Amino acid sequence: MTRPRVVLISMYVGHKGVPHAGGRYLLELQRLLERETDLTMLTVGNRLNHESATKPGVPRRLLLLGHETGLGVVGKAQNRLAAIVETRWRHRRDPGMPFIPFVVGLLRSSEARAAVREADVIDLQYSESIRLVRLLRRLNPTARITGTFHDVMSQSFSREPQDSPGERRYWQGVAQRSRGHEKAMVARLDEVLVFSDKDAELLGDPPHTVVHPPLSAGDEPPHPPAAEPVVLVVSYLARDENNKAALWAIDHVWPLVREQRPDAVLRFVGGGVSDQLRERVAALPDGSGVVLAGFVDDLGAEYDAAAAALVPVLQGAGVKFKTVEALCHGVPVVTTTVGAEGIEGDDLYAGLADDPMALASALVAVLADTQRAQERSDRVQDWAQEAYGRARFEETIRGTWQV
Asked: What keywords were assigned to this record (predicted)?
């Protein structure tokens, strides 16, 4: 059987040791495509992706487009113009638009254009890539073009802080424009992939496929009731919404927990710790119980030692991988409604609330009776490992290749 020729376009690259959940999803997707298709991956040639390209797990044929060096006068002028547009337009007026240097690099690269024209399937990851569907359709009218919405950006923009009339006008305008772009994107795709039916509804409920991220290896052991009162927060802290969530938890939730459990520990695990968060933790009094662990090599050991996992996010959109990962590891989860969005199951959480007092009370209840909290989590773990396992993920993705 002929292997399908697939072009995977993402502005980020997965690799072994990638510090964020979206990158781990890409790594699993890249592995599947590399194993079963003739894969070419296109991404933006920024510093981060050049570093990623040297690490294990990246596709053999990876083209980095944009920001090229060694060009003539015209090429350097194009790079400069792309950078200006990126700064003055994309970041200010239309944060969801494609990366301009990538578009310039794609149009400039005969190798990349040839891969697109010869592809049977063009797989677009994240909204920034899906916005390219019109251009890609012109380059290859016959390819099957699929788009995976990791989140719905119009919802994410609408949840940005709007504490002043100016901020409200700005973010409402960005969200409205984003909804228009989403409608146009969906209409041009052959296959719409989302992580939950909730996201499909936000996109206008088009024909779609729900793909569950492969967040379970299937071999996570049962989680024993924890010996120590450790509350774990796992997230890529460089993301603005995760940084804000961490600060909010420290200021508004954790003091309420410590009033009743002065021995409890709040442990932040994840790369990209901001200076703001680091300074906030450093300013806490001795014995606050807050620990910035940063990136760790063995995340499984962190889950094994935790009595509860806290997901305190109040912004953003889409399924929160950090919530699913904790469920797959059998850890009792206390989360906000944003942290639980799109994860469809019954009685999954040890606590579900947006009020700091309610979240703190749920955490204290888990710490007071870890055995009882663990009984629910054991049932949930079996469901989560099956729903978010590799076998189901691979079966779903293979179905999108039909041409």
From this structure: Glycosyltransferase, Transferase
